[in-house]
Write a structure and sequence with these properties.
The complex is a heterodimer.
Chain A (H helix, E strand, L loop, with lengths): L1 H12 L2 H48 L2 H7 L2 E4 L19 E6 L12 E3 L19 H17 L4 H6 L1 H7 L4 H33 L7 H31 L3 H31 L6 H21 L7 H40 L3 H13 L2 H29 L32 H31 L4
Antiparallel strand pairs in A: 1-2, 2-3
Chain B lengths: L1 H13 L2 H45 L11 E3 L19 E3 L29 H17 L4 H6 L1 H7 L4 H33 L7 H31 L3 H28 L6 H26 L22 E4 L6 H4 L6 E4 L11 H45 L3 H13 L3 H24 L31 H32 L3
Antiparallel strand pairs in B: 1-2, 3-4
Helix pairs in contact in B: 1-6, 2-3, 2-6, 3-6, 3-7, 3-8, 6-7, 7-8, 7-12, 7-14, 8-11, 9-11, 11-12, 12-14
Classes of the chains: A mainly alpha, B mainly alpha.
């Protein structure tokens, strides 16, 4: 077996395609590293500035007392940029980098609306009049280029030998066929891996030696997983190549078939199918969102005004009605925003489920999840935000109930604690990433990818066993 | 003789698996994508109609002229040909204010809201993109064995024993392969046009069909170029599988790698620092206007300082009203716009302030005139700055893209569809002309110094008399003119490549 693998390897290493693949992958990975080094420090800097701005915002309101803090809210919460963004850009531009935890709607003479958590949508490329581009990240290099390279290395592995007549020679030796197949597979695998590993090493070398970007132990672990995914994915395409190569008489036909399959899976599946799925499941237009919001608010306020004036001014009852109005309004509006967000997320989930037939999408989703970018990451960010918002609200309630002089009526200045709040005590938002959670979301896709590989490998085996020389 | 050759080649090509697969895949991709794009277009059109209707109503709810700021909005309709090449049609804003205090540009426009912005995660591919990827691949698949295959099988020697020139053989091969490639191209385009015409929302006019014709012509040039690349490789290599593998690498580099690589690289080129300094320059001009305004009011003993905020409503002019102010937004430096304009509107004017009204009118006459002058002055700075900051990097990217046929094809079809930068800018220059027309109308009718500018008690604003905005896409001639350089480049590359192939083929030994 090793003999066959070695023979394959030496055959491949001397070929033109090996040289071309090496140059291609090296060039792409090098560009990727350089671009990342240019862009990332700027991104991190901007994030830091925004976070400190957010902390100043909280401190300013905290010093004005509890009411101000409770009314203004924590302000914008920002998504932490991932250090592994060079692995997968993850369409980050299409997702907002913030959640608005301080969204105001109205104020009357005495009352101000309480903050609600809103989810602004990103406005990508508004200023940008450049031609559209798929960023050259690992996802692109692995998903598109590496798969193409893997096909180019295996399309003639069996049919080519048959054409030249050497297959008959090999099989005349007393070796079982599966040994021949595994030997060929290993040979092809190693010869694809060499340029890829070389390119990855150069990429990581450039990135890790620069002073601007720092990768910690967890990041390296994640990179290891991403590399493993890439290996699995390469195996998938190698197996596909061997399967078709074993079934087809001429190697040129085999490559044509492989390319057409590749085009369908790579070009058609991820975008078109997802667009069809996403747009057809779209549950109605949302421009009535603002109308609904207005309607709810108006109903509530007319109810409020009818009761408000019945009570004498300054009475606790009136303050209670005021407070109930403000808090109820905020609650309703926030629910509306959340419902819209959940509906949108559900639509994307439906669309993404369908695209999982395509290995390219699977691998890109996997790389995104482990690189800490993309949609799943965005959902984790939103979850973090929601947890923080609950924490913040509990803090307000706790601080208020700790003050014996307060009336414990939220929503009105006079109903709440008048004590100043120390800015240090206010909970701080921290956007964290959890590797085990990433594994959870990625598990299905990882299993699916493994399944694909196994099916194709056994398919290749069966085809090869039945092959007539 | 030529006809026999072409006939033979045609038969050879038509009866193959790859031809069937080519037709099937192109049809599948084009039809599926047309459906997606059509739906997307319909959604954008609905959003446009809804928004246009809303702003029409909003404007009519205003009673005084000064409130036209933010209410007089024009919308950019989606381009039906964006189904063929999306270009910038979806990317840039489509909602823009017409206001005398700033010159509207692409960068001031806002976008209509989308149903679900997350769906942008799934990039939609337009028809040109399908052709760009699939047809080029097919052209190479048709070409790789045209010469190498015949050489391998030994039939090339047979053909060459006949008294025909080698150039003729090449020509016959070229013509028949192009005919074969035309089949999937035309059938899929026809199907998508049928889908478009059956849809009620898309109204294609006669000149749109001309533009589609232009797109087809460009596609032909593009496909032929890739066929010739394949033929060239086929003429140079001995074995078909080597030829095919080389073809695939060339395809991967030209279609997949180079455009993305070069655009990613262009994005990190240092951005001009002009932004901040120009922004400050513009800010200074507006601050100068502010000073002049204060000077004017100070010189007028009766008017006094205008009121601030909504708290003390009855100060300053002695009119009942609220002052309004435009603040610079968070992202305003990015579009180099700065204005801090103040004004005042009053629902009704008290009897005791009636004698001041002519003076207020006088003030507005001065202030609006000066504002417009300042706008003209800032525009002189802003226009070149916008160009260096946004347009030049974009053009650099487009120019570098032209080293790959993909870039040429993309820019040429964009120009035909009218979704390129120039096509979009046509709309914005129309908006700029419209703004000019509105300002001229205000000057002509003396609206800036009229009572209706700030008060609605004696006659309200007449919005229907305003100049109407209408936008027509440029004629086909202009589209053609914009597409021509790239098409000529494609043609030249075709010719050069064909000559090279002929030379190689003539010198090659069988």
């Amino acid at each position: 077996m090793w003999h066959i693998a070695k023979r394959e390897l030496s055959n491949n290493l001397n070929s033109l395609r090996f040289a071309l693949a090496t140059v291609l992958l090296l060039g792409l990975m090098l560009t990727n590293a350089i671009v990342h080094l240019r862009e990332h420090p700027e991104r991190v800097q901007r994030y830091r500035e925004r976070v400190s701005g957010h902390q100043n915002h909280i401190a300013a309101h905290a010093s004005n007392g509890l009411y101000d803090l409770a009314q203004e809210g924590p302000g914008n919460l920002y998504k932490k940029p991932s250090d592994l963004r060079f692995c997968a850009e993850g369409s980050e531009t299409f997702m907002s980098d913030r959640a608005q935890a301080g969204y105001h709607r109205w104020s009357t003479g005495t009352l101000k609306s309480f903050w609600i958590l809103a989810y602004p949508s990103a406005t990508p490329n508004r200023d940008n009049v450049r031609p559209e581009v798929t960023k050259v990240d690992w996802g692109f290099i692995i998903g598109y280029v590496l798969s193409l390279v893997a096909l180019l290395f295996t399309f003639d592995s069996i049919s080519g030998e048959r054409e030249r007549g050497t297959l008959r020679l090999t099989l005349s030796n007393p070796i079982p066929r599966h040994t021949v197949l595994i030997g060929k597979f290993l040979g092809a695998f190693i010869s694809v891996s060499i340029p890829f590993i070389l390119a990855v090493l150069v990429n990581l070398l450039v990135i890790s030696t620069s002073s601007g970007v720092h990768l910690d132990a967890e990041a390296w672990g994640r990179l290891g997983i991403i590399f493993f995914v890439a290996v699995l994915y390469t195996c998938l395409f190698l197996a596909l190549g061997m399967l078709v190569s074993a079934r087809v008489q001429r190697s040129a036909v085999s490559l044509v078939i492989l390319l057409l399959v590749w085009v369908v899976f790579v070009v058609f599946m991820p975008s078109t199918l997802a667009s069809i799925a996403g747009r057809s499941t779209s549950s109605g237009p949302t421009y009535d969102f603002s109308e609904r919001s207005w309607k709810l608010h108006n109903e509530l306020s007319s109810d409020y005004y009818s009761r408000h004036y019945k009570e004498p001014e300054g009475s606790t009852k009136r303050i209670e009605i005021d407070g109930a109005y403000v808090t109820k309004d905020a609650e309703q509006q926030e629910q509306l925003h959340e419902a819209r967000l959940n509906r949108r997320i559900a639509e994307v989930h439906r669309a993404r489920t369908i695209t999982r037939i395509s290995p390219v999408t699977i691998v890109q989703n996997l790389i995104e999840s482990f690189a800490g970018t993309g949609f799943e990451r965005h959902l984790q960010f939103l979850e973090n935000v929601q947890t923080y918002v609950r924490e913040f609200r509990t803090f307000i309630v706790d601080t208020d109930s700790a003050d014996p002089e307060s009336l414990h009526i939220f929503g009105v200045r006079t109903g709440m604690s008048q004590e100043p709040v120390s800015p240090e005590a206010v909970p701080k938002f921290e956007d964290t990433l959890n590797l085990s959670k990433d594994f959870n979301t990625a598990a299905t896709e990882l299993l699916l990818l493994t399944l694909f590989v196994l099916v194709l490998l056994s398919g290749a085996y069966l085809a090869f066993v039945r092959v007539e020389v | 003789m030529l006809r026999t050759l072409i006939g033979r080649e045609l038969l050879d090509n038509l009866m193959t698996f790859r031809f069937a697969a080519a037709v099937f895949i192109t049809l599948l991709l084009v039809v599926a994508n047309t459906l997606v794009l059509l739906k997307d277009y319909e959604q954008r059109l609905t959003a446009y109609n809804k928004a246009a209707q809303e702003s029409h109503q909003e404007l009519r709810e205003e009673k005084i002229y000064a409130r036209y700021a933010g209410a007089l909005v024009v919308h950019r309709p989606p381009n039906p040909l964006s189904i063929f090449n999306l270009g910038l049609d979806k990317q840039v804003g489509n909602k823009i204010e017409v206001y005398h205090a700033f010159v509207p540009t692409i960068w001031d426009a806002e976008k209509h809201g989308a149903d679900n912005p997350f769906l942008n995660l799934f990039t939609s591919i337009d028809i040109v993109l399908v052709f760009q990827g699939v047809l080029s691949l097919l052209a190479l698949i048709f070409a790789y064995d045209a010469l190498a295959g015949e050489r391998e099988r030994g039939t090339l020697r047979l053909v060459l024993t006949h008294p025909i020139q080698r150039g003729y053989i090449l020509f016959a091969k070229y013509i028949s392969a192009m005919l074969c490639l035309l089949v999937p191209l035309l059938i899929s385009l026809l199907l998508s046009i049928i889908l478009l015409t059956t849809s009620t929302t898309v109204a294609l006019r006669a000149d749109d069909f001309l533009r589609i014709g232009g797109i087809v012509l460009t596609s032909l040039l593009y496909v032929s170029l890739f066929y010739l690349i394949g033929l060239c490789i086929s003429a140079m290599t001995r074995r078909t599988s080597t030829a095919l593998m080389l073809c695939m690498f060339v395809w991967g580099v030209l279609v997949l790698v180079y455009p993305n690589l070069i655009l990613t690289a262009v994005e990190i080129t240092p951005k001009p620092d002009a932004k901040i300094s120009v922004y400050n320059q513009i800010k200074q001009m507006w601050e100068e206007l502010e000073r002049e305004k204060k000077q004017f009011i100070r010189n007028d003993a009766i008017l006094g300082p205008p009121s601030r905020g909504g708290e003390d409503m009855d100060a300053g002019f002695g009119l009942e009203g609220v002052e309004y102010t435009f603040w610079q937004g968070e992202d305003k430096p990015s579009i180099l716009l700065y204005f801090h304009q103040t004004g005042l509107y009053a629902g009704k004017i008290k009897a005791e302030s009636e004698p001041q009204v002519p003076r207020v009118q006088n003030y507005y006459s001065f202030y609006n005139r000066e504002t417009i002058n300042t706008v003209e002055r800032t525009w002189l700075v802003r226009k070149p700055a916008l160009k260096t900051i946004y347009v030049q990097p974009a053009n650099l990217g487009r120019m570098l893209l032209r080293f790959s046929p993909v870039g040429l094809y993309d820019t040429a079809t964009e120009a035909w569809a009218g979704t390129d930068l120039e096509g979009i800018q046509d709309f914005f220059s129309t908006v700029q002309r419209h703004r000019r027309a509105v300002v001229d109308y205000f000057y002509d009718k003396k609206i800036f110094e009229s009572r209706q500018w700030f008060a609605a008690d004696k006659g309200t604003a007449d919005w229907d008399a305003l100049p109407q905005f209408s936008f027509q896409r440029s004629d086909t001639g202009i589209n053609a003119k914009r597409a021509l350089p790239d098409m000529l480049l494609l043609l030249t590359m075709n010719v050069i490549l064909f000559t090279v192939i002929v030379l190689i083929f003539i010198k090659s030994e069988v």
